[in-house]
Amino acid sequence: MVSEKVVIRNLTGLHLRPAGILCNKAILYKSRIQFRIGNTTANAKSVLSVLGACVKCGDEIEFICEGEDEKEALKAMVDVVESGLGE
Amino acid sequence: MYKGTEASAGIGIGKAVLVRSAEPVIRRELAADADAEVERLRKALADTAVRTEKLASELASRTGEKEAGILQGHLMLLSDPTLIGEIESFIRKEAVCSEYAVEAVCSAYAGLFSAMDDERMRQRAADVKDIKNRLQQVLQGIEPEDAASLPPGSVILAKDLTPSMTAGILPTHIAGIVTEQGSRTSHSAILARALEIPAVVAAAGILDAVSDGDDIIVDGNAGEVLLRPSEAQKAEYRQKREQFLREKKELERYIGRPTVTLDGVQVELAANIASPEDVEKVLRYDGEAIGLFRTEFLFMDRTSVPTEEEQFRAYRKTAAAMGGRPVIIRTLDIGGDKEVPCMGLKKEENPFLGYRAVRLCLDRKEDIYRPQLRAILRASAFGAVRIMIPMVTSLEEFRETRQLIREIQKELTEEGTAFDPHIPVGIMVETPAAVLLADSFAREADFFSIGTNDLTQYTLCVDRGSEKVSDLYSPFHPAVLRSIRHIITCGRNAGIPVGMCGEAASDPMMIPLLLAFGLNEFSMSPSAILQARKIITGYRTEDLQEMAAQVMKLETAGETEDFLRAFAGC
Question: Chain B: nearest CA to A53, how far in angstroms?
């Protein structure tokens, strides 16, 4: 299992469009991909789960990946967030 | 006339078309064969996805990929493992039909989103409901309403528009959109702006008053709707529409251009804001920075002072959203003239000469100033944040604030909290004392920002609100102009940037003079930015020097104003 923290920089937080981009990236990997924010843990492959976490601009989330391609998956998730999720 | 919220700029004139969304009737029917029912659900999901895909690609061709992203988001929901998993297990566990399972699961999620404290997240409830309706329509074989079939010149009136309904809209056919519900951040409002269709939302009571085919005018600039207008009104609004379109086209050419004069002098065009929500507007009008973030709004309309955490979130959001571009946060500028219940301020005989702004903050360090400065410093780790102190009249006030900032920086370092150790601290130059001491202040402050509204008021001893003397208030008064020139000269001699965040910064008559004086930054309401860029990029600063020398020889406000009006041609 690997994990890394990253700060969400999108103006509007993880709303529908950025959440969609995040999930589209996550489903490319076999590993289980989750992120933690406060006491909530969300499934990064489910838009509904990501939206339900109500992540706002400036919040820090911690990705947790577990599976055969966990390292690649973690790097991809951090990269996609830092690229601004399409905004 | 009906008043609502302006959601998309422009004037629309046309015929009313009422859109009523038919929600399918859902009953709790039992489904004995769970496998067959799940199969039926999956087929409906696939079918809905195909329809949504078609809608999305049509929309993308009209507005671009970004807006169609809303529907791409719907597609994601339609294949979401969490959502589908829950609907399927509901079907199996309760042995019910797909329609009912969709209703139960989607409504639960819609309820969850509606309860969130974030306006944008609450909008997600509309997405989930929209998907729910379309899935149920497909399951029951109901053809959805099609906005694409409306005739040209239609003005759509609805309680609220679902995203899928808005997506079908052809901008060539729809003259305007009016809804009784919704807000500026509703999908329908966002799409209306993307499609450039004039729109007014939250126009209460209009649906009861309007009939299909009524003449109607939508004023998306003022947030007004006129039902059954007279011929004179129609003519008036036709003219307004033409003027709006002409100006819009003209100004749009300035988006993305640098703010550089003909002879290569670059200045910064910044925006004045009052809340993090205003940033969207700043970015839309291509603002290069925030020149003034008024923090007063955080303290208004409430019974307790906002906590450090609450302020931190607001400042961080703004700093992060501006993505490294400067954000000047002005510390609390409040006094007895404003009703601020949480501060417990007494009414004063002369509130503008009394207990206010930095005076009040330095007196209430523990409950007001320290939490605010801590919040700003913490936010400085997330962007190019600057601190601006209002209504300074003495160097002691500046030094005491600086000292407090140093103390807080030491605290934060010990706590291991991130902040910008080189955060610039500047002053708002708006009192005659600060003007006369500008050379001294320039040696200690990191930047100046000229607040022309208060500077004019304090220099000329005129209360703008006092009817009998308000005509004495003029930023063109030679005393004010000399003050402005002096401030800029002192700042430039000391090598610090000088900005202006008062109304004069966007005044077409004032801009050439300010350019001649060498002002570095112009901060104004976001909607004035493109107009200012157009004006600035049309001048050559060398040519302005002679004009400035002439203006400064004039001795009355009337003369300078006439001269500058003639020069600017307005």
Answer: 10
Chain A to chain B Cβ contacts (< 8 Å):
75
Cβ contacts (< 8 Å) between B63 and chain A: which residues?
none
Per-residue pLDDT of B447-497, as tens digits, reads 999 999 999 999 999 987 777 888 899 999 999 999 999 999 999 999 999
CB contact under 8 A, A46 and B73: no
Q: How far apart are CA A52 and CA A81, in angstroms?
A: 18
Shared domain for B456 and B551, answered yes or no, is: yes
> Which candidate from A11, A16, A45 shows the least CB-CB separation from B124?
A16
At how many degrees (to 10) do helices B34-63 and B81-94 cross? 150
Per-residue pLDDT of B123-152, as tens digits, reads 788 889 889 988 998 998 887 767 777 889
What residues make up the domain containing B100? 23-140
Does the beta carbon of A38 lie under 8 angstroms from any beta carbon of chain B? Answer: no
What is the CATH number for B418? 3.20.20.60
- How big is chain B by its Cα radius of gyration, in Å? 28
Same domain membership, residue B466 and residue B545: yes
pTM value is 0.66
ipTM rounded to 2 decimals? 0.79
Residue of chain A minimizing CA distance to B318: A11
Which pLDDT does position B366 carry in this prediction? 94
Q: With the CA atoms of B77, B78, B83 and B88 taken in that order, what torsion angle do they form, in degrees rounded to the nearest 10?
A: 180
Same-domain pairing of B7 and B72: no
- Please indicate whether, in this complex, the C-beta atoms of A52 and B81 are within 8 angstroms of each other: no
